[in-house]
Amino acid sequence: MNFIVKNIIRFIILILLQVTIFNNIQLSGFINPYLYVLFILLLPFETPPWLLLILSFFMGLSIDIFSNTIGMHASACVFMAFLRPYVLNYISVRDNYESNIEQGLYVYGFSWFFKYALILILAHHSFLFIVEVFSFNNFGDTLLRIILSSIFSLILVIASQFIISKK
């Protein structure tokens, strides 16, 4: 299947899953899973930075439109996309990244994907929840919400990779 078509289908499916299922899951107000970040994580390594930012913006804007959150998800996704090249350089594999392959859990291994996803999901969630609160009052609650939501989102991302990715 054409890689562009595959990413368009992934974009639509992740938006539908997020809006219909995961936006309705809130455990004690501290756990809010965001599976849609998987779209940004799985974009090809050779995606130009400007295109990465634009695609991330539209992913976040789509979630904002359905969630009525006025740009919070769009800004968090753009922040995540901005950090992605730096994170990839930081955790780069020894022989650099291969081009024209679909990255995921089985390409560079569990440890690499776990670090990659953890850093970017923590960055996304930190930005999102701090912008949402926009205050340092109850910082402990915000920090707990960031940590718990990041853990739950990371579990969902890794589980989806085990289910969907091919060895």
TrEMBL record:
It comes from the Bacteria. Its main location: membrane. The keyword Hydrolase does not apply. One of its GO terms (biological process) is regulation of cell shape. The chain crosses the membrane at residues 7-27, 33-58, 70-92, 112-131, 143-164. Keywords: Cell membrane, Cell shape, Membrane, Transmembrane, Transmembrane helix. It is found in: Cell membrane. GO terms for cellular component: plasma membrane. It is a multi-pass membrane protein. InterPro entries: Cell_shape_determining_MreD (IPR007227). Belongs to the MreD family. This is Rod shape-determining protein MreD. It comes from Ancylomarina salipaludis.
